[in-house]
Amino acid sequence: MPVRTSTSTSGTSTPSRSESHGRGAPSTRGAPAGEGSLRAGPTVVRRVLVRRLATLLPLAWLVVTLTFVVVHAAPGSYADTIDNPRLTPQGRALLMQRYGLDQPLLTQYLRWLGAVVTGDLGTSFLFQEPVSEVIGRALPPTALLAGTALFLDLVLGLVLALAAVRRPYGIVDRLTTVLALGLYGLPTFWLAGIAILVFAVWLGWLPPSHMHGIDADRLGAAARLADLVRHLLLPALTLGVVGAAATARYLRATLLDVQSSRWLLAARARGLSERRLLWVHTLRPALLPVITLLGLSLPLLVSGSVVVETVFSWPGTGRLLWWAAQARDVPLILGITLVGAVAVIVGNLAADLLYAAADPRARGDA
Amino acid sequence: MRAPSRLRVGLAATAALAVACLVLPEILPAPPANDPVLSALLPPLTRVVSLTLVDGSSVTAPEVTSSDGAVVATGHGRSRTIPRGEVAAQHHFRFWLGSDRFGRDVLRQLLRGGRISLAIAGLGTLLALTIGGAVGAAAATRGGLVDGVLMRLVDALLAFPVLFLMILAAALFRPGPALLVAVLGLTSWMGLARLVRGQVLSLRTRPFVLAATAAGSRWHRIVALHYAPNMVGPIAQDTALRMGDLVIAEATLSFLGLGVPPSIPTWGAMVAEGQRVMLDGWWLAVLPGLAIAWLVIALALIGDGLQQLGEPAA
User: Fold this and answer.
1) SS3 of B37, please?
2) pTM for the full model?
3) d(CA B161, nearest CA chain A) in Å
């Protein structure tokens, strides 16, 4: 039976908070049987890749079209957000004309879509700069924050899970369960605030916000990097710890499954060292579903960084979207949405491919 | 069958919170008409004395002493001296969870905010349940093009970070309770649609449904007797977890200033407000966060318990 040939975006259930909280293994749910033939190896991977790439474009198109509809269904426009009493009706009309907002919606839509196809995301009303440049500036900080958070999530989650399954229902196990449940219930913005209060204000260990200190420009390369790491630590930990709790719970279940497996018993009977048993025969099969979990947690991570970026004044895409929405900056909103959607879809695709590469059963030949 | 302990704990905790939010503000002693200067930012458990003056106004302070013919009320680093003759009455009041920077009772604010949070999350969940159920059922029973279009729409919405969508919608439209319910409901029905569709598709080929169809049962009978009982469990489980998600989402939007207007205290807005004065009173930010966690964890326990209930006894 194919363990997981379906896609994350169309196969399993919702990538919401509840998904990461669920303790059953979601990998087999909803995988349509019979998909994927007996042909093994890279050809199948390539076929999956082609099919998935073909669905990527329509999906991204649907997402931005929905956003376009939502943005224009809302009352008001960019001109209304300009709070200037000297703006005459003529001036307002001129602005609307200048930004193409006086055109019929369909014309605006087709124009924007046509430009996007040629790689032009338009000009931001707010920044008076190409949208691609504005987003290009905000992407590295977001990638850094999300990447670090994801790394912490995985490492902390794995360590906690390994500690928990040493003695199931022991003290460590119970503590992780309680911790996971507590972190699941506490809102991220609350944790972020408490983290600032404790580590920045009371203990004074870490800076409370922003990506660099005010004197960062005058620092040498090494000091500058240290400054960046100090600023990165609190937001990344906030985001990572929340994920780690869920990852630990999930890994605990798969590790327990593996520990009671017959292949591990056989390997132990052959007299393999405990270290080899752990690294090769336990971790490898247990970590496989984590790849899928990573794909599913992408939207979560993007959403989570909106909150964390806002609280910590982190100059990333999340905060940018917030500004763009406030200012009704249509090209910027659409641009960020497009980039976010593509990132999530590509991430899911990458997770599926990785899975297919790592697990022969997922290629449908088991 | 005995209900799993998680389910019982979760139900009890949810019910306790709901009852407290609905009933307690009506029966607790009313907080004294406040004097923001003297009774602001009092830590939890502080007992205050409320003096009613002859002219009808009142003074509330944690510390009241009398010295030759006058009453001195002290609090928040200030004091006020009132001639004894002007004091008409005095009574005691305890700020169980402290007071905020306007001298308001945090417990009462929390309970009243809980009503809003519960109502918005509950109605949003109901909306999601309705839309998700309808879309899922339609996709499963119509099949073909309808199924394809609806499920691709679900894919597209799921590929979208939900909070992005919520922030976008909440920032673009004017905030208000009704809008918030709509935004929450319209952005969280996709998982349910998938669940319902999957359930219907798998139940449709089960022997007892086939038998009922072959025996000539009418469709509403099949739905009521065969589909519904088998789908209630998974849907209830999903709904409990989803409501927890929506509680967090509502709090997040309120925290970002995109929720209900600031005149209505909700938990998320209280955390935002509390974080502004966090150095003067930790309890203002901490307590609403714990209230949110209480509700979300209780709902998660219900979801877990329902899942255990649905699994064949291990």
Assistant:
1) helix
2) 0.79
3) 4
